[in-house]
């Protein structure tokens, strides 16, 4: 867990720097935590869990044959909204949770951390229900921030359940006013140029660029289409388009202060901006059946540590890393890294077997001041004033400030937005991380102060790079010659297939 004080970005760009300071815009830590909580709400449903609860429900119905019980189960499900949660201690992320079919996010955090929640700040994607709040408050948390739309016990559900939802909202208010914890809404306006910067860096990021190389002329439409779909989807989930309804809801959950203008319109604008930003970043690692994180064919084996995660989960974790990259302190490029591990059996968390180990982004040593270290790249002739000997890489920060040990018997995975450099590759392997998910645009690059030669040679760690689905590569290879790209042999899609890929299908998000 890295100290999230500092500055942020994506891949190097020149056009969107702040014209006054020449610096790239940066995501505030509060907005980062809020965005991550929304993103955790979207954690892909765990298949086993879905099946289990389906079986349970079928069993329950078959056994009881009780109509009332059936209605109660289905209305409960509709009424309780899936919720994401980020646990922060001393401005560092210590855990990421998402509610499961059986447990709300707040209860999961309580089970996992118990009294260690004392003095933590919790960021919820919805206002938590009274059952969660009473336990969290009791554990001594410092602050609870929530996204100001429909709460966990939905106020938008059917009339039959709205009485309960209103009662719960009242109980939450009472708990709030009698508790030491500060229960509040934390949303900050984006800094100048942030949105354009995120758009540009998302579009130019390694993942989209790699697809553009494989499918010339298709990426722009594909990226924009994906982004439009995500915006619509996230607005449905996280925004209340009807202003009156939104006002009523804010009144019910004790936010009457925010119902007057200009506060109300400012709040809605900040919410919209953050939703747009999340949709943009999510579109930079598009959900697409032709592309994903795959092992090169020569490295495929049946060992457990070489088994890839489901693509939608890998993609989800990479978007987390992309969000973290917007906190970088490098003036040119943001890199984000997040480490997850898989337990042998399922957690109570909505993340299934996955649990969070740590995260980081590239930044100067903790506590350093703005002008303490040089910021120049290798275009600067004087090597003494280049940044490379000072900046801590995203992977290094994720490893240094991790909040869990990396267990040798478990499958641990690092998701990095940029291919790990020669300094980081041995660290990742030495730490016992079993899999790397990344892009390979930089593989084979050699510069004076930073190089990317070791990743290609790395053995004993599963390497999953963003590439065309190998199953499709086989089809392409049957007819066509190969080309060399970054020193790696890549198939050139035949014209017919390229035509087909122009209609890239969006997978289910
Ligand atoms: O595994 C890595 C590799 C690099 N970085 C960070 C460190 C540094 O802040 C930046 C260096 O990026 P790059 O190699 O692209 O150098 P540049 O000078 O920023 O850009 P250019 O590609 O133009 O040389 O990326 C990481 O966090 N992890």
List its salient traits:
alpha/beta, six-stranded mixed sheet, five-stranded mixed sheet, 17 helices, binds deoxyuridine-5'-triphosphate, dCMP_deaminase-rel, CMP_dCMP_dom, EC 3.5.4.5, metal-binding
Distance from first to last alpha carbon = 28 Å
**Helix count from the secondary structure assignment:** 17
Strand order of the largest sheet: 6-11-10-9-7-8
Question: Which structural class fits the helix and strand makeup?
Answer: alpha/beta
How many β-strands, per DSSP? 13
Helix and strand element order = HHHEEHEHEHEHHHHHEHEEHEHEHEHEEH
Low-confidence stretches: 1-15, 56-75, 475-509
Heteromolecules bound: deoxyuridine-5'-triphosphate
Average of the residue pLDDT scores? 84
Per DSSP, what share of the residues sits in E-state strands of 2 or more residues? 5-15%
Main sheet attributes: strand count, strand direction, barrel closure:
6 strands, mixed
What percent of residues adopt helix (DSSP H or I)?
25-40%
**What Rg, in angstroms, do the CA atoms define?**
23 Å
Shape: globular
């Amino acid at each position: 867990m890295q100290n999230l004080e500092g500055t942020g970005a994506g891949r190097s760009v020149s056009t969107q720097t702040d014209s006054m300071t020449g610096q790239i815009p940066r995501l505030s830590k509060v907005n980062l935590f809020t965005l991550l909580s929304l993103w955790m709400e979207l954690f892909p449903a765990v298949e086993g869990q879905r099946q289990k609860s389906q079986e349970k429900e079928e069993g329950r119905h078959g056994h009881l044959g009780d109509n009332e019980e059936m209605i109660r189960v289905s209305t409960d499900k509709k009424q309780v909204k899936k919720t994401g949660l980020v646990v922060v201690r001393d401005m560092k992320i210590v855990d990421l949770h998402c509610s499961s079919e059986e447990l709300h996010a707040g209860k999961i955090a309580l089970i996992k951390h118990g009294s260690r929640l004392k003095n933590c700040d919790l960021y919820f994607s919805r206002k938590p229900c009274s059952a969660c709040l009473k336990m969290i408050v009791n554990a001594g948390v410092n602050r609870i921030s929530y996204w100001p739309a429909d709460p966990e016990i939905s106020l938008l559900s059917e009339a039959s359940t709205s009485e309960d939802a209103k009662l719960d909202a009242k109980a939450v208010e009472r708990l709030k006013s009698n508790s030491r914890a500060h229960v509040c809404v934390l949303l900050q306006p984006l800094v100048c140029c942030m949105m354009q910067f995120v758009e540009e860096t998302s579009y130019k990021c390694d993942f989209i660029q790699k697809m553009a190389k494989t499918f010339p002329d298709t990426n722009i439409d594909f990226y924009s289409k994906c982004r439009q779909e995500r915006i619509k989807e996230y607005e449905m989930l996280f925004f209340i388009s009807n202003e009156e309804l939104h006002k009523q809801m804010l009144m019910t959950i004790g936010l009457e202060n925010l119902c007057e203008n200009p506060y109300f319109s400012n709040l809605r604008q900040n919410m919209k901006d953050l939703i747009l930003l999340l949709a943009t970043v999510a579109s930079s690692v598009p959900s697409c059946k032709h592309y994903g994180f795959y092992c090169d064919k020569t490295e495929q084996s049946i060992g457990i540590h070489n088994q890839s995660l489901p693509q939608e989960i890998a993609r989800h974790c990479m978007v987390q890393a992309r969000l973290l990259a917007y906190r970088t302190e490098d003036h040119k490029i943001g890199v984000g890294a997040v480490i997850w591990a898989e337990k042998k059996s399922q957690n109570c968390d909505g993340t299934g077997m996955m649990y969070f180990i740590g995260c980081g982004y590239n930044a100067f040593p903790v506590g350093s001041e703005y002008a303490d270290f040089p910021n120049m790249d290798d275009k600067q002739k004087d090597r003494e004033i280049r940044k490379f000997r000072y900046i801590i890489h995203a992977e290094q920060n994720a490893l240094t400030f991790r909040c869990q040990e990396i267990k040798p018997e478990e499958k641990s995975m690092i998701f990095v937005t940029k291919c790990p450099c020669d300094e980081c590759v041995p660290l990742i392997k030495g730490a016992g991380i079993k899999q790397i998910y990344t892009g390979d645009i930089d593989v084979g690059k050699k510069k004076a102060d930073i190089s990317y030669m070791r990743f290609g040679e790395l053995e004993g760690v599963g390497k999953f790079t963003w590439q065309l689905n190998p199953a499709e590569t086989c089809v392409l290879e049957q007819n066509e010659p190969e080309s060399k790209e970054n020193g790696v042999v890549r198939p050139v899609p035949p014209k017919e297939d390229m035509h087909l890929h122009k209609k890239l299908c969006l997978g289910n998000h």
